[in-house]
Every structure is written in C-alpha cells, then in structure tokens.
Amino acid sequence: MDRLYRLAAEVNRGNRSAFDELYALTHKAVFLTAFGVLKDKMLAEDITQETYLAAFRGMERLSEGSNVGGWLTTIARRLAINEYHRRKREDASDFSAESGLEPKLQRHDRHETLIAEAAEVLDAETYQIVMMAVIGGYKRREISKMTGLPISTVSWKYKKGLETLKDYLEKERRQ
Questions:
Q1: Residue 99 DSSP class
Q2: Residues in Cβ contact with 125 at an 8 Å cutoff, skipping those fewer than 6 apart
Q3: Whether the predicted pLDDT of 102 surpasses 60
Q4: What is the pLDDT of residue 10?
Q5: Which one GO biological process term can you cite for this protein (predicted)?
Q6: Which ranges constitute the DSSP H helices of 16-101?
Q7: Is pLDDT at 109 greater than 60 in this prediction?
Q8: Do the beta carbons of residue 120 and residue 133 sit within 8 Å?
Q9: d(Cα 130, Cα 56) in Å, to the nearest integer?
Q10: With contact defined as beta carbons under 8 Å apart, do 33 and 43 qualify?
Q11: Per-residue pLDDT for 152 more than 90?
Q12: Which of 15, 55, 120, 136 has a CB 3.0–4.6 Å from the CB of 10, allowing a cystine?
C-alpha cells in the first residue's frame, strides 16, 4: 500500500500527526502545481491552503490504493485554474487594453493553456512529476522522495511525459 494513502487513511481516523506528515511530503508539489498556473507566490500559497482544506473534507472518499499525490495536485490545479479565470475576468473588467496588461495576460494565457494541455494529455502522476521538474526545478531524486516513487519510475515517467507532450504539441502545430 502506498505511503501517502496510508497517511490519508490515518488522517481519516483523526491522526493529526499523519496529516502533518502528509502535508510535509506533498506541499511542495501542491504549491508548484498552483504556482505553475498562477505565476504568483502569494496566490499559490492561498491555493495550497485551500487544496488541503478541500482534501481534508474529501479524504473519506479515497478508495484503497488511490494516488493521493496525484489527487492533491489535481485539486490544486483545478482550484488554481478557477482562481486564474476569476482574476482574469476581474482584470478584463478593471482595465482597458491600453493599460499595458493585455500582452501580459496573453503570455499568461499561453502558459496556462500549456499547463492545462499537459494536465489533459498526461496522467496525474506523470503530470505531477513533469510540473515538479520543469516548473519547480526539482531533481529526480528530490521528486522521488516527495512522491514516494522509485527514482527509476520518476525518471521514466518524466522522460515519457516530455515525449508525450512534444508529440502532442507537434501534432497540434501541424493541424
């Protein structure tokens, strides 16, 4: 049984130290996922907190063997995308195109679109690994420790994830 799943099961039983350990093992990946979408440290920290609140309320729904790390980063990604779109709507209504924000929003849109496409194309675990490496700058060994996966699995998933994304983007460009 996966270490993160065991910790989540302990959290469901009311074990506070298990939650602390689960947080310690996963908060960097959750933060990086949110930061990858929002490109704002403070907002990513807020989304990280919201992610753990949402996860705490929903942990009883996890089935045995669930990928808890992938589940947490999926929650973070969804919350971050929602926050991004909410802020984008606010920015669009508060400022005109002459304010100089339009190019910044377009650049942010491209990043957000690439991250969203990666989330659609890759499975949750591979997405997490790629985001931690590319956006977070973590090394394979660090990702292995944070996710609880063997370093060989992290290396393989990272390589396959990048290949999958490259193939997808090349296919999209041709269309």
A1: G
A2: 67, 69, 70, 147, 149, 157
A3: no
A4: 92
A5: DNA-templated transcription initiation
A6: 16-38, 41-58, 68-94
A7: no
A8: no
A9: 25
A10: no
A11: yes
A12: 15
